Amino acid sequence: MAATTDTEHEDTAERERDAARGRGRGAGRIAARAVSVFGELLITAGLVLGLFVVYSLWWTNVVADRAADKQADRVRDDWAQDRVGPDGPGALDTRAGIGFLHVPAMGKGDILVEKGTSMKILNDGVAGYYTDPVKAALPTSGKEGNFSLAAHRDGHGAKFHKIDKIDEGDPIVFETKDTWYVYKTYAVLRETSKFNVDVLDAVPEESGKKKPGHYITLTTCTPVYTSKYRYVVWGELVRTEKVDGERTPPAELR
């Protein structure tokens, strides 16, 4: 009887060990499956994030550049055909754009300037002049003040992406149908609060100026790929040139 009992005990213990091993293998399979699913989710999330980055930093640039080029062609065609705005000859037509910004330090090419700084405007790959919270002084008015502009630094055309390449003394040129306005950079503020609207004042005292004049201000987001702060460049008008029949650019752009 003792031998039989011992054998039964051994069989029972073996069965319990087999059951435990089975449970262990089952738990292992569940854990492995969970890790596999989690890994797949991470890969999917990475792909989605990667696609979003591509969309934000590349595809929006493509779309915005197409829109800006189309609008720029319209403006230049209107100039060539001597078309006028709805308010008659001599009136500023702001529907399509008022002119083009040239900043050699940021690269070749021009940037169409339109009215307003809303996302709807800037997302078309252009620069916009401020109408709120302060009103920019347009150089075409001949009045003293601050021609303040904004553009995206990343995505949607990223027209001010290389704003950090501008140094004091560098030219900034604004082109209209009839006139080249040549500015000289005199101050750079590499970081300030996005709520600092004083940089847009008619007399931008934060730039060191104390008296009225003809100023231009470029603003965009910083650091790169964020919108936490604002980057600011100030310039002052040094001269104007009439546009000739060949639209020969001023010396600063040759």
UniProtKB/TrEMBL annotation:
Residue ranges, annotated region (Disordered): 1-23
Gene3D superfamilies found in the cross-reference section: Sortase (2.40.260.10)
Keyword Phosphoprotein on entry: no
Pfam families: Sortase (PF04203)
InterPro entries: Sortase, Sortase_Class_E, Sortase_dom-sf, Sortase_E
UniProt biased composition (Basic and acidic residues): 1-21
Transmembrane regions listed in the UniProt entry: 30-58
Protein's UniProt keywords contain Methyltransferase: no
Keywords (A to Z) from UniProt: Hydrolase, Membrane, Transmembrane, Transmembrane helix
Name of the protein: Class E sortase
Source species: Streptomyces parvulus
Source taxonomy: Bacteria, Bacillati, Actinomycetota, Actinomycetes, Kitasatosporales
